[in-house]
Design goal:
alpha/beta, eight-stranded mixed sheet, three-stranded antiparallel sheet, 28% helix
Length: 323
Amino acid sequence: MGSMDKEVVSELPPFFRIYKDGSVERTRGSPIVPPSPEDPETGVSSKDITVSEKPKISARVYLPKLTQVTTQKLPVLVYYHGGAFCIESAFSLVETKLMNTLVAEAKIVAISIEYQLAPENPILGIYEDCWTALQWVCSHSPAEGGNKEPWLSTYGNFEKVFIGGDSSGGNIAHNILMRAGKESLPGGVKIYGGLLTHPYFWGSKPVGREVTENREKIVSDQVWRFLYPTAPGGIDNPMMNFNTPDAPSLAQLGCCRLLVSAAELDELWSRCVLYYNTVKESGWKGEVEFVDVEGEEHAFHILNYESENAKKMIKRLASFLIK
């Protein structure tokens, strides 16, 4: 029976519809593309792997082109894709383009996590998937002796592990960094740096230049409320609003370097600025950097990956990873 014949019981425009039979139709997102033994544009190799069967977590691993046999270890980037927690994929065209370009530019090993999406997977399940994936990556450190994925165990420098994400993936990365500040990881691995590009944060009270009226009609407000209706504090839950009085101090961030990037025309711009300033004022002992790109919209470097500003942005992200 086609979707036109099925009854819609709930929907979150423009992302998905839920039908009476329980099926979910996603109405937005870029196409899925296969990995490549050698990307023709960048020379980067990629492959898809299974991180966990229960829960079901997979990933795409990337390795830069190595011109000669080397024993040099490369920084490791664990990346969480964006898409409002409910669309896109580590295997999508735009995320694969981003990873290929970034890996080639920074000469890193990267692993992009295919976590289970909402609404099938609850929001808390997504965070747990991503923490489980990070633990699995860290299990490849020399102290653990893990060799499940040879690209990680052979080439990964586990003294230079980064966590990154864009949009909702940036929110995930933040929450994982907060958890890493309290809980240990396999092999005693410490997260070296965090990379948050246009991270998805929101709150009930407007900040900066955010709109003040009809906030409940803004997508940034609707997504969280729809996907996590039982969240303590609602849109002001600390996982979404780092600035609420109940939120833990950002001084607990579990890394020593952090890059926060924003886009001038993004409705999340003011939250990105506030996040950067809050980190600086929190007493956190690390080094935080801020990148603001004029005249661009949310996730421009991913969605418009061939533009000159996108190329410049990815070079800036790469410079942070190799600094």
